[in-house]
Amino acid sequence: MTFHAESRLASPDLSACVAFMPARVEQGPRYGEALVTLSPRHAQGAREVRVRWSLHGAAGTALVIVQGGISADRYVVAAGGNPGWWSDIVGDGRAIDTRHCRVLAIDWISSADLGGDALAVGSEDQADAIAAVLDLLGEARASAYVGASYGAMVGLAFAARHPQRLGRLVAIAGAHRAHPLSVAIRNIQREVVRFARAHGDTASGLDLARRLAMTTYRGEREFAERCADAPQLVDGRYHFAEEGWLGAAGARFAQRFSAERFLALSESIDLHAVAPQDVRVPTTLIGFSSDRVVPLADLCELQLNLGAAAQLHVIDTRYGHDGFLKEPAQVGALLREALVEH
User: Fold this and answer.
1) Which of 90, 100, 251, 300 is deepest in the core (most CB within 10 A)?
2) Annotated active-site positions, please?
């Protein structure tokens, strides 16, 4: 079930924002690395930064930028044996249909990528990195930017800093700033990782940090349904149903993420700040009823203060913040509407 609200601004002219065109010549996925020049917010002076990117879709069609959370990467589309982190949404015949558009994605840069004097990496640094990749590819403008979670935050920064290069912004489960309660929880996660690293067990720190994160990513209803089994007495103590689920998520995360990268990108979320009135690009906001990371009140505030016409859609889901991953049918329907599919 979805709900939506519209701002009082005039309806946007979508003629310059058609993200889907008749299918053109099929083109295999392209993967590349580029040295781009950035002037990071939390460092002194300009420097070269390596950015890894991917491009999927039909040659000659409109360009759509797609970015996800801090654990997402440029492998957004299923290709070459890689499942793609958002293959339910992006690909042939999906809501973002690579038969009719091209999809650009980058790997997030971290403070380590910016050099030793960088105190942190900002969402604006990510936005500038994407703009630099557009330059590399000879693309003056993207028809749309679709971002989820941290990707939505970067999308807002991109729209504020490069409005002439974007037709429409779709921001899913991401606001103009991090909510203070979410900042507090992420601070605990980072302290867990730092403590574990100082004691020679970084993997356990990442595991526990991810378990704690999962308690905010998912909603109360899903926990109630998943974890209804009674505790079991094993090896002299009770084990609860929650332990197995969260433990598996933590172990997977620890295997594929470094402490340095986690700490940098987690902190980047909390440093994120964009003045809503600086976003002068037609915008679609999508939130989730059970999201405890990005409360709906923050999205309402963002919508009311944006510098361009904006719609806010709310999806009712048991999956909380992870609704952008777990509700492909509902999210996909809203994306098709926002991107004006033909």
Assistant:
1) 90
2) 149, 291, 321
User: What are the pLDDT tens digits along the chain (342 aa)?
Assistant: 444 554 433 333 333 333 444 445 556 689 999 999 999 999 999 999 999 999 999 999 999 999 999 999 999 998 888 899 999 999 999 999 999 999 999 999 999 999 989 999 999 999 999 999 999 999 999 999 999 999 999 999 999 999 999 999 999 999 999 999 999 999 999 999 999 999 999 999 999 999 999 999 987 887 877 777 778 888 888 878 778 888 899 999 999 999 999 999 999 999 999 999 999 999 999 999 999 999 999 999 999 999 999 999 999 999 999 999 999 999 999 999 999 744
- Between the CA of residue 99 and those of 50, 205, 341, 342, what are the distances in Å? 29, 42, 12, 12
Element (H, E) at 256: helix 241-256
| Burial status of residue 228 (CB atoms within 10 A of its CB: 0-12, 13-18, 19 or more) | exposed
Q: How far apart are the first and last CA of the chain?
A: 24
Written as six digits, the tokens of 91 are 């690909």
Q: Report the alpha-carbon distance of residue 321 to residue 146 in Å, rounded.
A: 16
> In angstroms, rounded to a whole number, what is the distance separating the alpha carbons of residues 59 and 164?
23
Q: How far is CA 268 from the centre of its chain?
A: 12
Amino acid at 140: A
Token pair for 28: 């295999």
Q: Which amino acid is at 125?
A: D
Domains of the chain and CATH, by start: 2-177+273-339 (3.40.50.1820), 180-267 (1.10.1740.110)
C-alpha span between 52 and 35 (Å, rounded): 9
